[in-house]
Amino acid sequence: MENCGWCNLTEEDKRFQVYEGTFWSVFLSDEQDYIGRCILVLKRHCGSMSELTDYNFCMTNAMDPEQGCVGDWCIVKGPQAYFWGGTWLLAATGSDNTEMLKDIFETFTKNEDVCTKLVENDNQFPNNTKVVDKFANDPNYGNTAILDGQNDIAVFAELAKDIKWENHTNYDQILNEGLQNKLQEYFNGSVDKDTAMKNFYQLIKETYPNIKLPA
Asked: At what angle do helices 172-187 and 193-207 cross, to 10 degrees?
């Protein structure tokens, strides 16, 4: 116990705790390369993942109809439409069976029966606007796997309309993460805002020297 940093947190560290449950605590990470990144801490010592029981896993616990917290969750619209990540289908250049690849891609995007099952069986948000609109406008549809019957598809469908893709570039990931990291230094009080932005521009200069920076 003496050597466990999580068992001997300072009062300063405890300020970053955002949730505490029966088995887990959640702390806001000091490295916010992704805004909202958190650290999940088990409230007992554990040598490896194999020592965890099903009940220790927070989502398994949450989705347990008898012991969990199904219905205690809901989705709300944030201040700005946001997209990052997802489940991707990719094909390698030079693939020798392009017809099979075409069939796979179209199955998961154009086949309305398959996309419908992705929603009904797996609570997925499919890449098919007809299927999305069908569930978004269905008064009888609701996600009961973790939500209290809320129509999550309807929420996501409205948010998706506001996502602007025309300004997307190949530089986005590094710049997005870099800006958040440099601003985190400002938020932590280690530098002032002007220095944080100066450090961000220096990162751009070193990483992408071809980008024209503000004078």
From this structure: 150
Please, are residues 124 and 118 in contact by the beta-carbon 8 Å criterion? yes
Map tokens 């909202």 to a residue: 36
Closest CA to 26 of 13, 37, 40: 40
Q: Amino acid identity, residue 108?
A: F
* CB 126, CB 119: distance < 8 Å: yes
d(CA 69, CA 85): 27
Euclidean distance between CA atoms 9 and 12, whole angstroms? 8
Contacts of 156 (CB under 8 A, 6+ apart): 75, 125, 132
Average pLDDT along the chain, 215 residues, taken 10 residues at a time: 68 81 78 73 69 54 63 78 73 91 95 96 91 97 85 92 82 87 87 94 94 86
